[in-house]
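Deliverable D4.2, example record:
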Amino acid sequence: MAPAEEFRGRAADHGDMASSHPSPRRVAVLGAGMVGLSTAWYLQERGVEVTVLDRDGVAAGSSWGNAGWLTPSIAVPLPEPSVLRYGVRAVLSPSSPVYVPPTADPRLLRFLARFARNCTPARWQAAMRALIPLNNDALAAYAEMERGGVAARTLAAEPFTAAFRTEADSRALLEEFEHIRACGQEVHFDVVDGPTARAAEPALSEEVGTAIRIHRERYVDPAAYVASVAAAVVERGGVLRDGVHVDDVVTTGRGVRVAGEEFDAVVLATGARLDTLARRFGVRRIVQAGRGYSFTVKVDDLPRGPVYFPTQRVACTPVGDRLRIAGMMEFRAVDAPMDPRRIRALVDQAGQLLRGAHLDHREDEWVGARPCTADGLPLVGASNDPRVFVAGGHGMWGITLGPVTGKLLAEQVVTGRVPDALRAVDPLR
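Output generated by the structure prediction step:
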């Protein structure tokens, strides 16, 4: 595909009026996770030459060890009213699913204050409605990449089982489904009793008394899938360089200078480190690391699909012949060392509801930093410089929404027009 003949810059109203910038023939993408690589792939679809730069390597951040769920029907804003029910004592406990270590960091305290303000029904509903256009096209973007040469494949999550001790425990998720539907998004599910759930998934323990099976969802091995997208980008002529620490982006009369090279535009997709560069270009939203933990274990009866324990906030996903167990939300610095107490909490919680999981023989213990925003919405679009674009802040949904936001951002980069689905996630909002 030939490069677009004209690149319309970002207008004062963030999108509809064209300016006279030339077509972006060469674009640098900073970040080799799902978001950055998907953006690079879709830029190539529009005839753009791409160079992807990463300080560590492909899928080295939050893309590597997460649960790999592609669950757009339940991709919801992180700040929700139920979070406030934990209380101060709970969030200060290292065993809590949501953990805030005692801190005097003013930046983190500002983020937490803004996060708490968004934990209201009205703000959650507004954010949910903003996510729906992205959720609706999320799986189609994956299918498009696979038709276009990405060798990896998504897997049908049938069944996708949310398991609970009691029927009373399940009511919170059922109520959330009602709220999602009230905002205009469908969730397809059925409710089964404990014996039925255990018959379908023998890895569930006798403690499971009821379950909700969610339909029409998918999942991936995230590290393998992201590596496959990277390979496709390179096979189509893209350049991928790791070990490149970019600490500055300089705009010039001709474009932008990144890592000693000149490009027509740059996409900042640096995950939980997005603030470092984006703030220089008018992005004032804090992107806070919401760290998750995971490990893999052998299981006597490997589940056929993902298993979720919502009360404990524990996610389990088959990865090859093992089960990845993931969870926790820890608001802490990106580079803070792994906290072994968080792994122990994950082991304790998973062990209560799983049967035959060899939790004492863990492999691939991991911590990764999800890029979280205080309003639960990603930051995708142009900065205050028409050559600098932002793609990040997806929270727990970077794997689910990375390809669709990459597709829409590529459209904006090349045409200068803001797709309707990106208006609510403008990074300058």
